[in-house]
Write a structure and sequence with these properties.
- The protein is mostly helical.
- Helix content is about 65%, strand content about 5%.
- The strands form three sheets. It has a two-stranded antiparallel ribbon.
- The protein is elongated.
């Protein structure tokens, strides 16, 4: 295809330069948004008397047919085209002649590309948010089933205090709620139409920018034409939100990798979401979570690409900005792929409750509750802390746990102990005693699950 801008040049572009310059291989995914934006633009041009109503009707009908032909396969995208925008315009001109050439009146590729990218990412953010809501609901379901599943809570990867698996998984659900909020906030800031900004300085035609914004579902128009075509904050912001999301998924994946190991054995992945070894027949590898953990770095890298690309660009448009698409497309695609795999993996995962409980017992994570028992009897906390530490050492020596240590050993350590200490160090009682809002008591976690579901419904 001949280049639309070829009039200024006396020779053909070198084929290697043409390949280097072309973006159709990756921006072709925006064909729906490009056609939708062009239809709105042609309707506005006719409304303002810039082109005829019959001409606009011809353009709209032809663009609709191009979209149908692309989706049916009757029309194939030319890999030699410069980009999807020029390809569609050239096909339009081939089909309806000079009328098709009028579509680009009062428009530049700069504002056209900026428009298409905003519309595309607006649709993609909705898709990601939908997946995040499914993930959060899957987590709520897991929590519902494990309100009294006692497990050790960790600091420094050392067993620390008793919590439930429900409490633990709800911590991730809270992260996902924040991810949803961040993406929705970014989408809201992005939802302004740049169309009408032209190449950088609008146009001398008396167009109606607000009309196209309304037709395309935008909240308004960009206030400055230079900013309208050169702004890629929305790409960087969405990328940043996706990077944080992937960090959350990576942290969860790391824990699942640990929990699947024989050293923990807290969960068992369904066979459909694990792989084996080519040489070791006993192996069941959590490859899905390892890949998510690895792909986190990829999405962070996409964000760095966008930041590095934009950091020294003068206003307005520069060809460097063509690099925005592959980076943001990859970030979105990768996050969606990870979510689509993680959701069913969690949904089919088996929680090994007995193993979690035994780990909680052997970790002496009720030691703080034992010390608190003495404090409530009037002993200063530091004295109670020292006595309980000695009791833990004695349990290790006798190969037992605080729940099973004899009352004789307790009294030997401190005369304030009586048989009610066993109620104090019972792991479920330890949990039920932590009834503070946001705490691990089953009733508190149940309330948290309800609040999470309310937020998801909103």
């Amino acid at each position: 295809m001949a280049k639309m801008w070829a009039g200024r040049f006396s020779k053909e572009v070198d084929s290697q330069v043409n390949d280097f310059n072309s973006s159709v291989s990756f921006d072709s995914r925006m064909y729906k948004q490009d056609i939708k934006g062009s239809i709105a633009h042609s309707v506005m041009l006719a409304s303002c008397g810039i082109i005829g109503q019959d001409e606009a009707k011809q353009i709209v009908i032809a663009l609709d047919q191009i979209k149908k032909d692309l989706e049916s396969g009757a029309l194939q995208i030319d890999p030699n085209a410069e980009d999807i925008h020029m390809f569609i315009e050239q096909v339009l001109t081939e089909r309806i002649g000079d009328v098709g050439k009028k579509l680009h009146t009062a428009r530049s590729r700069n504002d056209q590309v900026a428009l298409d990218l905003r519309m595309y990412l607006r649709d993609e953010v909705k898709s990601v948010v939908k997946l995040l809501k499914q993930l959060a609901e899957t987590m709520c379901k897991l929590a519902d089933d494990n309100l009294e599943t006692v497990m050790p809570g960790y600091t420094h990867l050392q067993r620390a205090q008793p919590i439930t698996f429900a409490h633990h998984i709800c911590a991730y659900a809270e992260m996902i709620l924040r991810d949803i909020s961040r993406l929705q906030d970014a989408a809201k800031r992005m939802n302004l139409s740049p169309l009408g900004s032209g190449a950088l300085a609008t146009t001398t035609y008396e167009i109606n920018r607000q009309m196209t914004a309304d037709l395309l579902g935008f909240d308004g128009i960009t206030a400055n034409s230079l900013d309208g075509v050169s702004d890629r904050d929305f790409c960087m912001e969405i990328s940043s939100a996706l990077s944080i999301l992937m960090v959350h998924l990576s942290r969860l994946s790391e824990e699942i990798v640990l929990w699947c190991s024989w050293e923990f054995k807290f969960v068992e992945l369904d066979d459909a979401y694990a792989t084996g070894s080519s040489i070791m027949p006993q192996k069941k590898n959590p490859d899905v979570t390892e890949l998510i953990r690895g792909k986190c770095g990829r999405v962070i890298g996409d964000g760095m690409t966008l930041l590095s690309m934009m950091k020294n660009l003068p206003l307005a448009y520069n060809k460097d900005m063509q690099e925005d698409k592959e980076a943001i497309f990859d970030a979105v695609d990768t996050a969606k792929l990870c979510l689509k795999t993680l959701i069913p993996m969690l949904d089919t995962m088996t929680v090994l409750k007995d193993n979690m409980y035994k780990a909680a017992q052997r970790g002496f994570i009720n030691a703080t509750d034992c010390a608190d028992y003495l404090v409530k009897k009037g002993l200063p906390f530091r004295d109670a802390y020292k006595i309980t530490g000695a009791l833990v050492a004695r349990c290790i020596e006798l190969n037992t746990v605080l729940e099973e240590l004899s009352i004789k050993e307790y009294k030997k350590a401190c005369s304030l102990f009586d048989k009610k200490v066993y109620e104090a160090v019972n792991l479920l009682n330890c949990l039920n005693g932590r009834k503070i809002d946001g705490g691990p008591a089953p009733q508190c976690v149940k309330a948290e699950i309800e609040k999470i579901r309310q937020k998801l419904a909103e």
